[in-house]
Amino acid sequence: MSSRPAFDAAALPAAARGAEIRVRVARRRQESADVVLLDLAADDGSTLPAFAAGAHVELHLPNGLTRQYALCNAPEDSGRYCIAVLRDPASRGGSAWLHDEAAVGQTLRVGPPRSRFALVPAATHHVLVAGGIGIAPLICMAERLAVADASFELHYCARSATRAAFLERMACASWAPRVRLHLLDAPLAAPAVLDPVLDAHPPGSALYVCGPQGFMNWVLGAARAAGWHDRQLHCQHFGAAVTVAPHDADFEVLLAGTGRVVPVARGHSVVQALAAAGVVVPLSCGQGVCGTCQTRVLAGAPEHKDVFLTSAEREHGGFMPCVSRARGARLILDL
Predict the structure, then answer these.
(1) C-alpha span between 291 and 285 (Å, rounded)
(2) Does 191 share its domain with 228?
(3) Which helix (H) or strand (E) holds 71?
(4) Which residue, 154, 183, 132, is CA-closest to 53?
């Protein structure tokens, strides 16, 4: 299937992209064979906005791309944002640029921290499952749970020890006995070693998973098969495939606020069609991952293609116009 045409979020007015902070790369270090850590500090020396464990930021790169990265330093460390960047062999220019071009002193723009991947205070036990670079938000969560003296365990699945991040940091932590490292033979091999972990979940437990999409799908599916309820499952997405499906067709959107009708052609997103008509919708990832462009469907049957909205949010009209479409000829949007 062919890819949907790229949409350049940097072309939108700053107000449409949300508040941004000018930062500089204060420190850079190689964490593993294909992961680099970047410390970002406010360019004017000020304190950065606070964040909670599991939060992420949207990084706006000089090449016009916007990417999301989990914050992996302690929330109380207000002088910096630390991000872990995996070099993706199929990079569309984000991770490759950060690995090859982002030197100490480089200035960048970053959005304020956001999170849909927060710890559940009421949980009696926390099971953290990371696949590859998915360890970035989970190590921060593990440290926060340890400070709170909460019950938790961290399972880290990686291809090999040389490609695993934060091994020294975890080994030196007071909570090191709660960590289980699982090395895989293949990138997305089903980590069968997690079966007994998922089977033995105490009442009131919460499961948090982050990693490649295939890995998360396997873990969440195995958890549901083991009896976990959806309300106990929490995951973080940082990327999703945006494709044109064979059944995609032209349709139109009616903007409830003005009565204006905007046609949306096959192969173009609602956001692209609106932008071409002079209607700017806030946009960041363009992949149905971050929630920046979320709006509401007032009438019509949407075809949801995002990985951001919950089932309940979709039932109440939530709609991600960067990737989702219409099942019929028209949608009426709350715009």
Answers:
(1) 8
(2) yes
(3) none
(4) 154
Domain's final residue, options 208, 236, 264? 236
Rounded to whole angstroms, the Cα distance separating 174 from 177 reads 8
Among all chains, which residue has been given the structure tokens 């706006």? 60
For the full predicted model, state whether its pTM sits above 0.90: no
Q: Which CATH number covers residue 129?
A: 3.40.50.80
285/115 Cα distance (integer angstroms): 14
Q: pLDDT, tens digit, for every residue of 174-219?
A: 999 999 998 875 444 556 778 888 888 778 999 999 988 778 888 8
Residues 221 and 140 in one domain: yes
Answer yes or no: is 28 within a domain. yes
DSSP letter at 108? Answer: E
Q: What domain range is 133 assigned to?
A: 125-236
Structure tokens at 29: 């270090």
Distance between CA atoms of residues 272 and 254, nearest Å: 15
Spatial distance between the Cα atoms of 146 and 175, rounded to a whole number of angstroms:
7
Q: Which amino acid is at 206?
A: A
Higher pLDDT, 8 or 73: 73
Q: How many domains does the chain have?
A: 3
DSSP for 145-175, written as a single string = HHHTT--EEEEEEES-GGG-SSHHHHHTSTT
Question: For position 280, which CATH number holds?
Answer: 3.10.20.30
DSSP 201-223: --TTEEEEEES-HHHHHHHHHHH
Domain boundary among 212, 236, 260: 236
